[in-house]
Amino acid sequence: MIPTTSAGRQPAPDSRPARSALRRLLRRVAGASIWSAIPATAFIAVLFLLPLAILFAQGFQDGTLDAYRKAMTDGLYVGVLADTLLVAAYVSLICLLIAYPVAYFLASASGYWPTIGLIFLLLPFWTSVLVRTYGWMVILGRNGIVNRLLLDLGIISSPIIMINNLMGVLIGMVHVLLPYMVFPLYAIMRRVDSNLLVAAEGLGASRWEMFRRIYFPLTLPGVLAGTTLVYVLSVGFYITPALLGGGKVPMTALLIEKQVSQFLDWGFASALSVVLLAATLVVYLILRIALRGNMQWN
Q1: Radius of gyration of the chain (CA)
Q2: N or C terminus of the chain: which is more exposed, having fewer CB within 10 Å?
Q3: Does the pLDDT of residue 297 top 50, yes or no?
Q4: Alpha-carbon distance 19 to 292, whole Å?
Q5: Considering the domain 57-297 in this protein, what is its CATH number?
Q6: H/E element holding 291?
Q7: Least confident of 159-168, 173-182, 283-292
Q8: Which of 20-24, 42-46, 58-62, 151-155 shows the lowest mean pLDDT across its residues?
Q9: Domain segments of the chain as ranges
Q10: 177, exposed or middle or buried, with CB in 10 Å at 0-12, 13-18, 19+?
């Protein structure tokens, strides 16, 4: 016979066994998650955190902060660091301006055009960066293809200097890093619901308003991902600035290489590397906060 209360109702079932079973299950899941995360954590610690710690420690070879103080206060190295960050910003902006319409075409085109476009974007990855840089030296040189064509057409009277300066460095770096901007944008544009644009057009919005208020805000995550990726890669570029810049476009990576190969000053080279890493992280955080705030506002 089932017991009842004084009002004739059955008592509520005791939920304590179910709660205790749920707690035991959660503890088992948490324990399994911790054990499964140990290999990944060890992998990151050994291959990423440990080298960074060694790099940071090498800056204290003489037991003082002189190397870091010189890297952060000397006018020469601070100026080169500022130029490096500025060149990376130029490259990121140019890549964004070129990649956005290219990614939009690939995301909105029909038929075989997206496949053909992606193939052409992937083709440069099959060629060494060094080979591509030498190719640009042949194309942009004083007697290169571009100058010869412009001279033959009568557009210019004397060759244009397009290498051993900032122009050549920007052209070479944009060519190498452009796919890294296109792919994140293409991925996010493929996920934009076209019905939103149709609804906005039905409500009387112009094409500019649809782009400014709907399409571009929805693609901001791709802009953030692509800009961050291109910027971080640009900051540490070495081959292209060294060859197309001809030593006239100083970047921090070139200074680090010179400290190691010519002066054998591993401590100061490590300090320059750490300062470059810290500056890159600061710019990345500023960029992330700015774009994230814009996304939330939209």
Answers
A1: 28
A2: N
A3: no
A4: 40
A5: 1.10.3720.10
A6: helix 266-297
A7: 283-292
A8: 20-24
A9: 57-297
A10: buried
Taking the C-alpha atoms of residue 238 and residue 244, their distance in angstroms, rounded to an integer, is: 10
What's the burial of 195, exposed, middle or buried (CB within 10 Å: 0-12/13-18/19+)?
exposed
Q: Which position has the higher pLDDT, 294 or 273?
A: 273
Residue 80 neighbours by CB under 8 Å, 6+ apart: 250, 251, 252, 255
Cβ atoms within 10 Å, residue 73: 9
- Among left, alpha and beta (phi > 0; psi -120 to 50; other), residue 163 is beta
Residue 20's pLDDT is what?
A: 65
What's the number of CA atoms in the CB half-sphere (13 Å) around residue 21? Answer: 5
Tokens in use for 65? 């902060």
Q: Which of 52-66, 124-138, 202-216, 282-296 has the lowest mean pLDDT?
A: 282-296
> What CA–CA distances, in Å, run from 173 to 80, 96, 157, 178?
18, 13, 28, 8
Q: Distance between CA 284 and CA 281 in Å, rounded?
A: 5
Amino acid at the residue 11: P
Among 267, 244, 269, 288, CA closest to 61: 267
Tell me what pLDDT residue 25 has: 58
pLDDT higher than 70, residue 215: yes
The letter for the amino acid at 162 is M
Can you say how many angstroms the Cα of residue 298 is from the centroid of all Cα atoms in its chain?
23
Give mean pLDDT, residues 178-206.
88
Would the pLDDT of 124 be above 50?
Answer: yes
pLDDT at 87: 93
How far, in Å, CA of 207 to CA of 189, rounded? 17
Burial profile 137-165: b = 16 or more Cβ within 10 angstroms, e = fewer: beebbeebeebeeeeeeeeeeeeeebbbe
